[in-house]
Design brief:
5 helices, alpha+beta, 158 residues, single chain, four-stranded antiparallel beta sheet
Amino acid sequence: MRTERLTLTPPVADDAGFVLELLNDPGWIANIGDRGVRTLDGARAYIEERFSKSPWFVVRDAAGQPLGMCGVVVGRDGLDSPDIGYAFLARHSGQGYATEAAAAVLRHARETMGLTKLAAITTPTNTASQRVLEKLGFRFVQMINLPGSEEPSAYFVI
């Protein structure tokens, strides 16, 4: 997929270095959680296990450099519909990339996957992510507790 500034491609084993960096970025750990991936082999396994089950995309700039990831999670425990997710390296935050990439993935979810309802979850303190969701038309519904999570999540739908 392409947007005005970005290219979104499915992750492949060669993206392991980037995925390793992203999974250990302070923003990922604070807002998504520590996945315990500390090696390139672990990152390759994570790509194979986690990103191959639902459509996820590496978000790249005009030079082809990876900035973050954006995708749809199908079958998350505790949610009644697929949810959209995104994460960007901290050095790329505040530049509108999340909004631009998530809008493209939202179109993909509706037009290609045929989804009419999508959810999204954030940590309660992740106001930047919540603003992205609101720009896309998501509305806050309530705080929920997902299975296996110690902290509540802000639950949005569109």
